[in-house]
């Protein structure tokens, strides 16, 4: 018998996960924990979009950032500027960019951390190049200082914010159902869940997380059953889920 997987990603990012999980026999429930809110465009950001063709490379850190990038390109550029190296942290973000940008999109085949992006060949020889990072508010700021240390001139645009969603009592109870594992892929989602979870939930509900950073944070918050997928991609999550010993029926 396959587990129930509770997806906590924003609703707009769940379709590919739901299809793939169901194809492998999992029961899937949707309990979004985070709402993605695009930030108002500033004059400084507008200037960046208008000068987009001046960048040698663009790092897009999430599917939400990718959606906003494509929206801005559509608004300002009838055709995407050519010659830009597009980098992202995993297949989920790449799936958003590929239909428009095709072979210009690169991402690590193993790992999805900023460090893995910085190991790509496209980021090595960047002396005097202009690079853009498109991200949400907060988060790890690893890529910018690393590129700057390699001689690049880097602009960072924060284009959205994450806000936690308040769960009602019935929804909180669904998190503790037998045979369920809760997927968590961001600190914001973990913080939102932890602030609303009971002690029983933290002691009994397994978490499927995506990185050592989330692993450490979950343990500090008192979660007892943690499965580290070693990556935030759908493929990494499926590998981790399929490696779990299935409970006997």
Please tell me about this protein's structure:
Belongs to the uroporphyrinogen-III synthase family. This protein is an alpha/beta fold and 249 residues long. The chain has helices at residues 15-23, 43-50, 63-76, 91-101, 114-117, 143-149, 169-174, 187-196, 199-204, 212-220, 234-243; strands spanning 4-7, 27-30, 34-38, 57-60, 85-88, 105-106, 130-136, 153-164, 180-183, 207-209, 226-228. The protein folds into 2 domains: 4-33 and 165-243, Rossmann fold (3-Layer(aba) Sandwich); 37-162, Rossmann fold (3-Layer(aba) Sandwich), CATH 3.40.50. The strands form 2 sheets. The chain has a 6-stranded mixed sheet with strand order 3-8-7-4-5-6. Helix 3 runs parallel beside helix 4. The protein starts with a strand and ends in a 6-residue tail after the last helix.
Question: Which terms would index this structure?
Answer:
249 residues; alpha/beta; Rossmann fold; 6-stranded mixed sheet; 5-stranded parallel sheet; elongated
Strand order of the largest sheet: 3-8-7-4-5-6
**Could you say what the CATH topology of the largest domain is called?**
Rossmann fold
Number of helices: 11
Taking all residues together, what is the mean pLDDT?
A: 91
How big a fraction of the residues is strand? 15-25%
Number of strands: 11
The major beta sheet can be summarized as: 6 strands, mixed
Assigned CATH architecture of the largest domain:
3-Layer(aba) Sandwich
In short:
The protein has 249 residues and is an alpha/beta fold.
Write the layout of secondary structure elements.
Elements: E1 4-7, H1 15-23, E2 27-30, E3 34-38, H2 43-50, E4 57-60, H3 63-76, E5 85-88, H4 91-101, E6 105-106, H5 114-117, E7 130-136, H6 143-149, E8 153-164, H7 169-174, E9 180-183, H8 187-196, H9 199-204, E10 207-209, H10 212-220, E11 226-228, H11 234-243
Parallel strand pairs: 1-2, 1-9, 4-5, 4-7, 5-6, 7-8, 9-10, 10-11
Antiparallel strand pairs: 3-8
Helix pairs in contact: 3-4
């Amino acid at each position: 018998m396959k587990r129930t997987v509770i997806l906590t990603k924003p609703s707009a990012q769940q379709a590919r996960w739901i299809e793939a999980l169901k194809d492998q026999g999992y029961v899937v429930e949707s309990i979004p924990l985070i709402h993605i809110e695009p930030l108002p465009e500033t004059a400084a950001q507008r200037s960046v979009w208008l000068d987009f063709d001046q960048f040698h490379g663009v790092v897009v850190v999430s599917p939400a950032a990718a959606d906003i990038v494509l929206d801005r390109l559509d608004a300002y550029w009838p055709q995407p500027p050519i010659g830009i190296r597009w980098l992202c942290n995993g297949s989920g973000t790449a799936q958003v960019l590929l239909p428009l940008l095709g072979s210009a999109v690169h991402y690590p085949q193993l790992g999805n951390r900023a460090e893995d992006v910085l190991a790509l060949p496209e980021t090595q020889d960047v002396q005097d190049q202009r690079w853009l990072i498109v991200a949400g508010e907060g988060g790890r700021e690893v890529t910018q200082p690393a590129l700057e240390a390699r001689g690049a001139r880097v602009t960072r645009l924060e284009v959205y914010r994450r806000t936690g969603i308040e769960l009602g009592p019935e929804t909180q109870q669904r998190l503790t159902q037998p045979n369920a594992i809760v997927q968590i892929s961001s600190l914001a989602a973990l913080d939102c869940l932890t602030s609303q979870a009971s002690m029983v939930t933290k002691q009994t509900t397994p978490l499927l997380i995506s990185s050592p950073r989330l692993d450490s944070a979950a343990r500090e918050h008192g979660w007892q059953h943690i499965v580290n997928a070693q990556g935030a991609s759908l493929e990494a999550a499926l590998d981790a889920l399929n490696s779990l010993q299935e409970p006997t029926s």
